[in-house]
Amino acid sequence: MVQRALERVPLPEPDLSVQPPGGRTLINFETNFFTAAEPFTETVTLLGRRVDLDITPSQFRWAFGDGEGLTTTEPGAPYPDLELTHTYLEQGQVRPQVTTVYTADYRVDGGPWQPVPGSVDITSDPVDLTVTEVTNQLVDHR
User: Fold this and answer.
1) For 99-123, what is each residue's pLDDT tens digit?
2) Closest to 20 measured CA to CA, from 122, 134, 139, 137
């Protein structure tokens, strides 16, 4: 019953951020990924009893849009930290996404905390990203 209550709680949808910004990145370049995710509490009533939920984003499943993926326990971080990067090896259009996995503990009427069985997954909207190749050119400025 508590698991079903957790599934009904409005969980924050992940917002995938990609750096460099602007929807473009380079082949063989570390592209930075991160999302915002903070623990929070929610209170629901089940069978007339107060149930507190301590909800935690416990896992992040990254799909980079090129067939590669990664699972982490951290949400990444903006530049300059570069906690989570991916290097694309081919040019083209990709649509990376992140799935945040929420787990929770609960207590009834202020009693002891217990784990909620299972988890709830929320997936971000995909981000349109163009992977392009840059070549050097020598220019004579005489």
Assistant:
1) 999 999 999 999 999 999 999 999 9
2) 134
